[in-house]
Amino acid sequence: MRRLSVPGELARPLRGHLRLGDPAHGPDAIEVNSRHLTRGGRPWFPVMGEFHYGRYPAGEWREELLKVRAGGVTAVSTYVFWNLHEERRGVFDWTGDRDLRRFVMTCAELGLDVVVRIGPWGHGESRYGGFPDWVLAVDMRTVLETK
After folding, report:
1. Low-confidence stretches of the chain (pLDDT beneath 50)
2. What is the strand order of the sheet 37-39 is part of?
3. CA dist., res. 99 & res. 57, Å (int)
4. Distance of CA 147 to the CA centre of its chain
5. Which domains are seen in the chain, by residue range?
6. Residue 17: partners with Cβ closer than 8 Å, 6 or more residues away
7. Given this model, what pLDDT does residue 19 score?
8. Closest by alpha carbon to 33, among 11, 48, 51, 54?
9. Which of 1, 81, 128, 138 suits 42 as a labelling partner, its CA being 20 to 30 A distant?
10. To the nearest whole number, what is the mean pLDDT of the chain?
11. How far apart are CA 106 and CA 60, in angstroms?
């Protein structure tokens, strides 16, 4: 049973009441309590920014990510636009400026966490939400058309 705090005394945050985070035994475990996030047992406040790897030359990712980090960002969010990787049906391209693995590894080397936003829908001002043009040419009925 939890007791009420005495004026001026901070009650300990509730723990374990939310099913969020990592198992506590991990070396870099992220946990959630009633007041804040912790990472590796220490209070943690992530700051996220967007960086769409496929819209920037791969040779310049490192320099730009260093600027992002210098601005206080600790986590980078990036879309995986379907139309970038499968412009032609069945032909995938994960090379050069489209190399997601290289981008994630570069972020890791710079101490940045990454949130990969997979689709199929990607809102980041990509034509048709990131769906490839060939999808529109496929003869099929959508859910809305069947009603």
Report:
1. none
2. 30-32, 37-39, 42-44
3. 11
4. 35
5. 1-45 (no CATH), 46-146 (3.30.420)
6. 34
7. 78
8. 11
9. 1
10. 87
11. 11
pLDDT of residue 2: 59
pLDDT given for residue 3 in this prediction? 59
Calpha distance 104→88 (Å, rounded):
25
92, 118 contact by CB (below 8 A): no
Q: Which two tokens stand for residue 98?
A: 């489209």
pLDDT digits (tens, 9 = 90+) for 47-78: 999 999 999 999 999 999 999 999 999 999 99
Which percentage of the chain shows pLDDT scores above 90?
A: 50
Q: Which three-class secondary structure string do you get for the chain?
A: CCCCCCCCCCCCCCECCCCCECCCCCCCCEEEECCCEEECCEEECCCEEECCHHHCCHHHHHHHHHHHHHCCCCEEEEECCHHHHCCECCECCCCHHHCHHHHHHHHHHCCCEEEEECCCCCCCCCHHHHCCHHHHHCCCCCCHHHC
Q: What is the rounded distance in angstroms from the CA atom of residue 44 to the CA atom of residue 38?
A: 5
Tokens of residue 92, six digits: 């995938």
Instruction: Look up residue 52 and give its two tokens.
Output: 């769409």
